[in-house]
Specification:
This protein is an alpha+beta fold and 271 residues long. Helices cover 15% and strands 28% of the residues. The strands form 2 sheets. Strands 1, 2, 3, 4, 5, 6, 7, 8, 9, 12 and 14 form an 11-stranded mixed sheet that branches. A 3-stranded antiparallel sheet has the order 11-10-13, with no helix packed on it.
Length: 271
């Protein structure tokens, strides 16, 4: 398997550059192109991210989040975005877009994900889905999903007098943090696959949930990935999606392969 390196140190955002630690990000091509990186942020920056993540997760009181997927946590909105600095900055967004090779719009969806020990396997899916927002981001800024609109359908919530904007997920980031030391056999990794019907227990490649590490990939018809059951320890991550215009995604991939959420299925083979 061929691997090359990419150096995010060339970011034009000087403030962001001061937060980065490792400049060696690894690009791999099997089973689909993706980038992994370790020791992403400087220790003090990572420590603050972990501290804030734990506090925000505790504030949820364990209330249900994505129950169909066995995930506790919360959606990250404007009210807490500054507590996950620098992940929700335009500089970080633009760096990820450049490395992933997409033209991103500045629309982002972000979630804090917590898998309790013994969470069930996920299923292989590609994240090539639509995402709905209320208008464009401010100049040089970002637009987060909600409130006022259902991100998965575009349905307006409450008395909102605005036109929904449909985008398509262009890239996905999983940033792992606040996890116990990981050992082979613990599970909780992200598996990468060649097909939607793949057995979740037989990944082509595995990305373990090591603290201050990340997985980044462009969302394409082939970017199949899924959660592998964590047997002994919890698994925490921040998941972030960058978006592109629907017209551009359709021109590249065709509309038929962009999967609305109501059509996503969990195959029995992945249970």
């Amino acid at each position: 398997m061929t691997a090359t390196t990419t150096y995010p140190a060339n970011t034009e955002d000087a403030q962001l550059a001061r937060t980065l630690n490792s400049r060696r990000w690894i690009r791999r091509y099997q089973p689909f192109p993706h980038v992994i990186a370790y020791d992403v942020f400087r220790p003090a920056v990572y420590h603050q991210l972990e501290t804030n993540f734990r506090t925000l997760l505790a504030d949820t009181g364990g209330r249900p989040y994505l129950t169909a997927h066995g995930i506790d946590g919360r959606t990250v909105g404007e009210e807490i975005a500054d507590q996950l600095h620098p992940l929700l900055t335009r500089g970080w967004h633009d760096l990820l877009a450049r490395v992933a090779g997409i033209r991103a719009t500045g629309h982002i969806a972000v979630g804090m994900h917590h898998h309790r020990p013994g969470s069930k396997n996920g299923f292989a899916h590609n994240d090539l889905n639509p995402g709905w927002f209320l208008g464009e981001p401010p100049p040089g800024g970002l637009a987060l999903c909600g409130p006022g609109i259902d991100y998965t359908s575009g349905r307006l919530l409450g008395e909102v007098d605005r036109t929904p904007l449909e985008t398509v997920r262009g890239a996905a980031l999983l940033f792992y943090l606040a996890n116990p030391p990981w050992r082979p056999g613990d599970g909780g990794s992200t598996g990468l696959y060649r097909a939607a019907g793949a057995d979740i227990r037989r990944p082509v490649a595995v990305v373990p949930p090591l603290n201050n590490s990340m997985l980044l990939f462009a969302c394409t018809p082939r970017s199949f990935h899924g959660f592998i059951s964590n047997r002994r320890t919890p698994r925490n991550s921040i998941v972030m999606w960058l978006h592109r215009t629907k017209d551009e995604a359709v021109a590249q991939w065709g509309e038929a392969v962009i999967v609305p959420y109501g059509r996503r299925r969990r195959p029995d083979a992945t249970r």
